[in-house]
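Objective 1b of the project was to move from sequence-level analysis to a structural picture of ligand recognition. The entry below was assembled by the postdoctoral researcher (A.K.) and checked by the PI before modelling. It contains the amino acid sequence of the target and the SMILES of the bound compound, zinc ion.
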Amino acid sequence: MGKLTDAEIVKILSDLISIKSVNDHEIEVCYYLKDLLAAHGITSKIIQLSETRANLVAEIGEDGPVLGISGHMDVVSEGDALKWRYDPYVMTEVDGKLYGRGTADMKSGLAALVISMIHIHEAGTLTYGRIRLLATAGEEIVGEGAKAFHQQGYMDDVCALVIAEPSEDRIIYAHKGSMDIRVTSKGKAAHSSMPHLGFNAIKPLIQFVYNLDEGFKDFTQTNRLLGPPIMNATIFKGGNQVNSLPEYAETEFNIRTIPEHDNSQFISYFKRILHKIESPDTQITIDTYMSRPPVFTTGNNSLVKMAQTFGKQYLNTQVEAQASPGVTDAADLLVDKDEHFPFIMFGPGNVSQAHQVDEHVDKSTYLSFVKLFSEMFPTYLQNLK
Ligand SMILES: [Zn+2]
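Corresponding predicted holo structure:
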């Protein structure tokens, strides 16, 4: 079949944008990619997580070390569609830019990975090692796709990982973890003139938040790449009538973790605070509904260096390597790997475009990444020989 043309490469992205995989329905993306890969002689497997959600895995190469290449298939909601200049699900090209939900985050990166795999396969340039595509579901919420890949052993023999999240201007090799925790308090409703007949759900929750904030001062360690941990109460609500004692209140926290103050520390910290403020009347529950660990690698490896070399060649810029505050699927894919593991986040699009109205990617950058990946992946593996 030969190499895909630029027009075909753009059409593939356009097809992917038209699939509304908004925090769900990744299985539709799987079907599309499976057919595309099959048309070029690459078999793939859909691993269902639910009726509408699935991961996709495909591999080329016979044996030897495995390079993992990964992208997520979900996108975030378009928000207020009226604010968009163009239909978010009809990819529109204007002045060399491709507009649409997911053009940057990260269907262009995903497409570039898949197409590079096709080009490598068709050109027969993979002479050593294997390339395994790990297309994930649910990256934008809790990372269930990446968690499933890890649990099912797909990462066990992977020796290096590229995630093509929008990061055309810098190569990321470390990032913080993230947690979302909901704390709910139950009380007993009563008329506010007779509070002894009820229990105010807000009261212990205020104490909880206050004590939690005070104690956070003791989280004094700072990671040399990632900086300090961050914790914020971002939601607080309770009560619905001014002359009634509220029977329910809740607060939510987002926490950004580092290896020195990791996710498990925060889980036990929340328990300690609960213990401190508990009384016979309090009914507080803690629900950690999202937890993705930090990723710490040193970046001191040939994958980072090679990405910089090829970045210079194909993107015509000196791409710096650095740590980032954002979270990727690496959080769950790399849980068993150590700091020497070669990991990069590098892909078309700018992170400032992610989740925005009028999200877009430069067409030329997207096409350049197809070429960059097509050359870099087999070269990286060959150099391991
Ligand atoms: Zn993303």
